[in-house]
Amino acid sequence: MSLDTQSYALPVARTVADLRAAIAGWRKAGQKVGLVPTMGALHAGHLSLVDLAKSKVDRAVVSIFVNPTQFAPHEDLDAYPRTEAADAVKLAGKADLIFAPAAAEMYPHGFSTTVSVSGVSQPLEGKFRPTHFAGVATVVSKLLLQAMPDIACFGEKDWQQLQVIRRMVADLDIPVEIIGGPILREADGLAMSSRNVYLSETERKAAGQLNVILRETAAKVAGGAIIPDATREGADRVRALGFDHVDYLDVRDAASLADFPTGRVTAPARILVAAKIGRTRLIDNMPV
């Protein structure tokens, strides 16, 4: 095993073999393991997931890997922030190991397998980013099989992603408990995101109202308003803030992401939005 223990205040595994060797040592000592998959550029939301994992298990691994297969050709793969050294500082004293593989380690020459989850992946994000969830499911399935943790923690901000992962783990009998961590928000309610750094001052002020519109729209639907009417009005309000485009603002079944044919909520529901302002696409959600 050749962990990098010189660069940062906690060890870094660069290969699957080293990751597994470190975890095997913990297992031998009878310790339970949690995994927090990330793409780096860590903020307080990510760190809350590490704290959540450590509250339930003995050891926490944080993966840092900007996964190319979940980005479409026109998306911001090259521009996505890569801040490994700063991330390691934030993880010191919280995580026990960073897993930071190169793309060639995750997708070696000849790699030709894709994990596709139908149904829950198809509406909302799936409509606007049709290749995204196959990339997510593929990399997450690999991370889970590489680490074989007892638990894995994902943020509820990516609500649809969380449901896709839960469906995949259930369907493929992967022996890991998937735990969702609550959304962490800025003082004005904006959901924390690595992409928030792209916002100008004017855009940031407008973005801070997105959660307000979601909350008020959810309240209307919970109070009996017809879903298409309430969400159409909500989307109009988002555009009025200065957002250039609203991909969706809708109320869906919380687990399956199916719509409600009657136009009224008949099961646990979630309101979800994706909207672009300037060059930044923001997503958010909350229970109805």
Features:
alpha/beta, three-stranded antiparallel β-sheet, 10 helices, 18% strand
How would you describe what is shown here?
The radius of gyration is 19 Å and the shape is globular. It is of the alpha/beta class and 288 residues long. The chain has helices at 16-28, 44-54, 84-91, 103-106, 125-128, 132-147, 159-171, 201-207, 210-222, 227-240; strands at 12-13, 33-38, 59-64, 97-99, 151-155, 177-181, 245-253, 269-277, 280-287. It is 36% helix and 18% strand. α6 (132-147) packs across α7 (159-171). The longest helix is centred in the middle third of the chain and has 16 residues, at 132-147. The chain has a six-stranded parallel β-sheet with strand order 1-4-3-2-5-6, sandwiched between helices. It has a three-stranded antiparallel β-sheet with strand order 7-8-9, covered by helices on one side. It contains ten helices and nine strands.
At a glance:
This protein is an alpha/beta fold.
Our estimate of the beta-strand percent is: 15-25%
Q: Overall 3D geometry?
A: globular
Calculate the terminal CA-CA distance, rounded to whole Å: 48 Å
SSE class? alpha/beta
What is the typical, i.e. mean, pLDDT? 96
Side by side, the strands of the main sheet go 1-4-3-2-5-6
Summarize the SSE layout with pairings:
Elements (H helix, E strand, L loop, with lengths): L11 E2 L2 H13 L4 E6 L5 H11 L4 E6 L19 H8 L5 E3 L3 H4 L18 H4 L3 H16 L3 E5 L3 H13 L5 E5 L19 H7 L2 H13 L4 H14 L4 E9 L15 E9 L2 E8 L1
Parallel strand pairs: 1-4, 2-3, 2-5, 3-4, 5-6
Antiparallel strand pairs: 7-8, 8-9
